[in-house]
Amino acid sequence: MSTEANKYLKFGAAMAVILVSLAFLAYTGVQESKSYYVTIKELRGMGDQAYSKRLRVAGNVQPGSIRRTGKQVEFVLVENEQNLSVIYSGTEAPPDTFKDDSQALAEGTFGKDGVFHAKQLQAKCASKYAPKQPTQGTPAGAPAKSTT
Fold first, then answer.
1. The pTM is what?
2. What single string gives the DSSP state of each residue in the chain?
3. What is the residue-averaged pLDDT of the chain?
4. 54: which residues sit within 8 A by CB, 6+ positions away?
5. What does the pLDDT read at residue 135?
6. % residues pLDDT > 70 (the chain)
């Protein structure tokens, strides 16, 4: 084999190793960041699959259930009369909109102890984004009358 053909062979082998490495890193990155959205009822019905997957669960925060201990926050999500205990121990503080009766989305894993262990938490206050209600006696969309 000539030296020029040997150079092409080494270059091709190096490129193949690089491409296989990049494909492997891309695949594992996607697998690690993938999370499934489930309802609380679906989570309860998943069986052993629930313990091995990264999941997202949404619901309303049960009033009076929020307990803070340092950076850890414990609360209960409620959806269609199904309850789920959640322990959030992420790196960031919970959002300002995380309060009683707010809608919350927790991302993490479901433990065999029956508690959802969240690493990320999103929340919004539904009343903050609701449209303003017209005052009584004023038709919707009509400007208020001045008495001056």
1. 0.60
2. --HHHHHHHHHHHHHHHHHHHHHHHHHHHHHHH--EEE-HHHHHHSGGGGGTS-EEEEEEEPTT--EEETTEEEEEEEETTEEEEEEE--SSPPPTT--TT-EEEEEEEE-TTS-EEEEEEEEE-GGGGSPPPPPTTS-TTPPPPP--
3. 78
4. 32, 34, 35, 36, 107, 108, 109
5. 59
6. 78
